[in-house]
Amino acid sequence: MSDHLVGKTALITGATSGIGFYTALGLARDGADVIVGARNETRGRNAVEAIQKMNGRSKVDYLVADLSSMAGVRALAEATIDQYSRLDILVNNVGGFFLTREVSDDGYEMTFALNHLSYFLLTELLRDLLVESAPARIVNVSSVAHQNSRINFDDPQMTRRYWPMTAYGQSKLANVLFTYELAHRLIDTGVTANALHPGLVRTGLGTKHVFRLLIPFVWVGLRMAMGPEDGAKTSLLLASSPELEGVTGKYYSTEKEVRTSRRSYDKSAAERLWDLSEELTGLRSARA
Length: 288
What we know:
By secondary structure, the protein is of the alpha/beta class. It has a single domain (9-199, 231-281), classed as NAD(P)-binding Rossmann-like Domain (Rossmann fold), CATH 3.40.50. It has 11 helices and 8 strands. Helix 2 links the parallel strand 2 and strand 3 (60-64). The longest helix is centred in the middle third of the chain and has 23 residues, at 110-132. It is globular.
């Protein structure tokens, strides 16, 4: 526990449980004013009360939004801009894993909408506030699942054939490609962007869905997995470590910098994904 984040404001999406909750708690313990991104009011209120009880020093609040919806992402961005004069840390942590193909309110495949498009749109809508608050940091929670994945530009919504691990891996590769391209576009702004794999973590996401696909290895996986408090350490490192001030365009796994997959360094794929993301989120038409 320290005071090096006093005066700074942090927004963490998906912060009512798991890695997101402990990321929010850790930032609050270091003095930051924390905004808990929550899908519903009850979970948001409970998370805030728990963080205040465990910390009791910083200002902690919550904002409610369904980030699988582009309207929900916009509402969260607007509320943040309206209620806060600065944003020093943005942790895009929300995520989901869907065993069957689901469709968002916008008609997009749910994994891609929640795990990637929410990161992209929220970050872009908050970019000016982050730049005005610089030095600022953007942290994108990805996964080792990106390693053997690719972006299916011919059918990114997986309308022809859906496989949950393929959808999840595509979304996590999108996180890495987005991070690298974002870091490039933010050069000389004072805002950094980095991504991470938290490690194998016992969270609701893993125990409810991912591990179900790994049977009969499920119990082995559960024994080896770390708790969400340890799983938050890499997010906290990238969000707050003074030693990483100015570090950008990197990927960390269990608190160490590592290289990502060959496809993640494909500049043309990153630019193509950016264009697709602008189109799907409506940013391209807004800027035309």
